[in-house]
């Protein structure tokens, strides 16, 4: 047995079979607040009552019961899952005093990830939910006020003090309006401090963050062909960028706190952490559910008091493509999709909770059960995707006899760390298999994001269990917060760039939901630049008539690529202040005075300093002066020429990057292609099953067949897009080969 304790959490790890199980000291949940600057520090937890489990209402799925309740038709559940355990086998705390168990306690232990359209929300109303600057009043930083009537099983359900109809609708509309101002997808980046190992290896901190917490720069050290070092700057803009000194409390205020009220408004909210192994995902995610629970309970007990709401807690992990219940001794669960493409986790235990202490205990229990292992970058690496869900439900007609309906849900997903193949050479076979599985699911997630980004009709959510679960995070009335965790060390540069590009991609999904955000999202500079941000910023305010397509064009493989409209007219040294003394050599400054007059790729002098961004800039400045266009046609034509040259420039002038990009894209395309075909087969198989089921007298086979046809034609379109991109890719590869041959002696 191997055990290790980390500095941050006092977490202990034990090897058990092929996976470890985490154990957490009580401290870990407090510890994250020890650096709290937001008032109350770590006290808020200590003020909680120390009662034990508060009658957790364990509910399990019963297919029989569900079928009886909902009728068989339309169901597409293939489960042979265990039925609800006999009452006698359950702890006494779960039984009613009388010994009777109401049917509602046997509510389907099924996580219906899409059951949001079932509840009329006109009676869910919070007075002044958004009225105060903080929806949680002055209670932040304290425990739940126990003087408030707590929510329990037989409270005032059905006797809710409803507000008069007209008042209610106005208020609901206002709340909805305010909810609309919360970004649909928020992307926050968090940088962790250098750890001991990195310091010992004398690795440098290569991330700088702008004081306004929006801009982030990665300073990548690269080698020229003559082996001289230079620094390439990669600048990014996100909704928020949190530096290493930002506490978990501040992180909570920035990320989850704004979306908590949304889950009372029929919204699915998801917060997930993404990043390379050891970048701080678990550290970041662990404190959040508890803080959120506190706020949810407070809202339930105050703003939504007497509305008959209940809070349910579940916690499961996806390990090796399989789903395990972390609150039920890692019992294996099945995920099923019903006829309405609603994803359900069959047999998942849900606990009804009414105080933070219970939730804390459940979180600890789940975390201790989670699979962990050791990777090159993290001794105690999460080898699974952990999903913790807080669901708000409401009893139907105030009756305990009917299963409660989901009003809203908040999911926390701690994704397993991404690893490059090159990082896994030290790992044992099991760890490598885990790594491959993790990477596969993260790739599937990327494919979904790519598909959403391209507005494809079919989103390949079925690519992995993870994407099936995340499906509702991206669809319909949802709010998503992605926290990208990055390591600051020079040794992790490639990983960090990958994470940031991934985050940028997710960010672009929020386009349309908020025009302001769109602007900032489009503005990310993914490639190195010799121009300071300020020299590019004014371009963003150019009027629409200046032809947006000329500014942003679709990258050759679907990425939106920013093109600078007006070439920077001056050269800056991209090496950050204070770095000149170190081993980072200012490459650009050596060449800043050079300028070439060539305007076509053929004329580029590739013999000397061919990778110099400054030369590029000055060349562009000479070739395509921004002012002086006589009319719109000329301007557009010139911009198109400029775009073409810059694109060629970007693509050609850094062959190493280009080759890597091309190879990555090729790999992605091939995998995507194969997956498309597999998915088509899956869909056809599913549909055939449906057809078999439907092939009963009286059923309408025609509608099934027409649905099948629609899906097939959507698939054909998807594959058509892929082929077009593949052709484009091949053209690029040809161009690249031409460039490579020009280097040949
Ligand atoms: N912001 C931070 N401040 C201080 N320490 C941190 C921070 N983020 C992470 N750490 C520390 O870095 C180590 C790795 O963090 P963590 O386990 O959260 O990484 P991870 O991304 O979840 O890794 P994996 O994907 O392998 O599970 C831990 O010891 C953690 O305490």
Structure keywords:
Kinesin_motor_dom, alpha+beta, binds adenosine-5'-triphosphate, 745 residues, microtubule binding, 16% strand, four-stranded antiparallel beta sheet, 20 helices, twelve-stranded mixed beta sheet, single chain
Description:
With 745 residues, the protein is of the alpha+beta class. It has a domain at 657-743. It contains 20 helices and 21 strands. The strands form 4 sheets. Strands 3, 4, 8, 9, 10, 11, 12, 13, 14, 17, 18 and 19 form a 12-stranded mixed beta sheet that branches. Strands 1-2-15-16 form a 4-stranded antiparallel beta sheet. α10 (429-453) runs parallel beside α11. The longest helix has 43 residues, at 701-743. The termini are far apart. The model is unreliable at 1-173, 420-425, 512-630 and 643-656 (pLDDT under 50). The structure holds adenosine-5'-triphosphate. Adenosine-5'-triphosphate binds next to α7 and β16. Residues 613-622 have a biased composition (Basic and acidic residues). GO terms for molecular function: ATP binding; microtubule binding; microtubule motor activity.
Nutshell version of this structure?
The protein is an alpha+beta fold and 745 residues long.
């Amino acid at each position: 047995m191997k055990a290790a304790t980390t500095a941050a959490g006092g977490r202990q790890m034990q090897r058990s079979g092929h996976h470890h199980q985490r154990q957490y000291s009580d401290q870990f949940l407090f510890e994250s607040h020890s650096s709290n600057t937001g008032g109350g520090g770590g006290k808020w937890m200590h003020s909680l009552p120390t009662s034990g489990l508060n009658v957790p209402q364990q509910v399990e799925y019963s297919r029989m019961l569900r079928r009886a309740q909902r009728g068989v038709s339309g169901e597409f559940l293939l489960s042979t899952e265990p039925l609800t355990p006999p009452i006698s086998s359950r702890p006494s705390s779960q039984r009613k005093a009388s010994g009777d168990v109401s049917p509602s306690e046997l509510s389907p232990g099924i996580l219906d990830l899409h059951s949001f359209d079932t509840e009329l929300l006109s009676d869910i109303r919070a007075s002044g939910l958004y009225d105060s600057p903080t929806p949680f009043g002055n209670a932040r930083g304290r425990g739940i006020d126990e003087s408030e009537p707590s929510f329990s099983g037989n409270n005032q359900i059905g006797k809710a003090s409803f507000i008069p109809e007209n008042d209610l609708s106005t208020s609901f509309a206002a709340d909805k309006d305010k909810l609309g101002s919360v970004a649909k997808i928020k992307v926050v980046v968090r940088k962790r401090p250098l750890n001991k190992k990195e310091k010992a290896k004398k690795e440098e901190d290569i991330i700088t963050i702008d004081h306004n917490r929006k801009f982030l720069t990665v300073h990548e050290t690269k080698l020229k062909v003559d082996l001289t070092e230079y620094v390439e700057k990669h600048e990014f803009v996100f909704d928020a960028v949190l530096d290493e000194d930002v506490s978990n409390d501040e992180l909570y205020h920035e990320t989850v706190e704004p979306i908590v009220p949304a889950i009372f408004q029929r919204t699915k909210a998801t917060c997930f952490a993404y990043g390379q192994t050891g970048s701080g995902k678990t550290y970041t995610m662990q404190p959040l559910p508890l803080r959120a629970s506190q706020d949810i309970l407070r809202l339930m007990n105050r703003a939504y008091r007497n509305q008959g709401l209940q809070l349910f807690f579940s916690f499961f992990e996806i390990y090796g493509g399989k789903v395990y219940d972390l609150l039920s001794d890692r019992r294996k669960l099945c995920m099923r999709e019903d006829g309405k493409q609603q994803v359900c986790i069959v047999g998942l235990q849900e606990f009804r909770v009414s105080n933070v202490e219970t939730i804390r205990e459940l979180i600890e229990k789940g975390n201790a059960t989670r699979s962990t292992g050791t990777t090159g970058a993290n001794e105690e690496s999460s080898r699974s995707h952990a999903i913790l869900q807080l669901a708000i439900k409401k009893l139907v007609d105030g009756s305990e006899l009917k299963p409660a309906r989901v009003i809203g849900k908040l999911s926390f997903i701690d994704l397993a760390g991404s690893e490059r193949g090159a990082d896994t050479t030290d790992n044992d076979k099991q760890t490598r298999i885990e790594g491959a599985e993790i990477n596969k699911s993260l790739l599937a997630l990327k494919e979904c994001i790519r598909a959403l980004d391209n507005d494809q009709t079919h989103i390949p959510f079925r690519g992995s269990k993870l994407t099936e679960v995340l499906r509702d995070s991206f669809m319909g009335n949802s709010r998503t917060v992605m926290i990208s965790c990055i390591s600051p060390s020079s040794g992790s540069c490639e990983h960090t760039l990958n994470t940031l590009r991934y985050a940028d991609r997710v960010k672009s999904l929020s386009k349309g939901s908020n025009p302001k955000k769109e602007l900032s999202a489009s503005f990310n500079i993914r490639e190195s630049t010799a121009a300071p941000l300020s020299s590019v910023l004014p371009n963003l305010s150019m009027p629409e008539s200046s032809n947006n397509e000329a500014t942003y064009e679709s990258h050759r493989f679907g990425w939106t690529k920013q093109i600078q409209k007006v070439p920077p007219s001056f050269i800056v040294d991209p090496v950050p202040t204070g770095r000149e003394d170190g081993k980072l050599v200012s490459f650009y400054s050596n060449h800043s005075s050079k300028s070439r007059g060539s305007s076509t790729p053929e004329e580029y002098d590739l013999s000397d300093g061919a990778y110099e961004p400054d030369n590029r800039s000055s060349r562009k400045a000479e070739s395509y002066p921004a002012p002086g266009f006589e009319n719109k046609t000329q301007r557009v034509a010139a911009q198109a020429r400029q775009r073409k040259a810059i694109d060629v420039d970007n693509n050609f002038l850094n062959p190493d990057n280009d080759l890597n990009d091309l190879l990555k894209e090729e790999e992605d395309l091939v995998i995507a292609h194969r997956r498309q075909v597999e998915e088509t087969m899956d869909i056809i198989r599913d549909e055939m099953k449906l057809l078999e089921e439907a092939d009963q007298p009286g059923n309408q086979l025609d509608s099934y067949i027409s649905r099948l046809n629609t899906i097939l034609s959507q698939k054909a379109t998807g594959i058509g897009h892929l082929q077009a991109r593949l052709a484009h890719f091949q053209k690029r590869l040809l161009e690249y080969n031409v460039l490579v041959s020009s280097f040949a002696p």
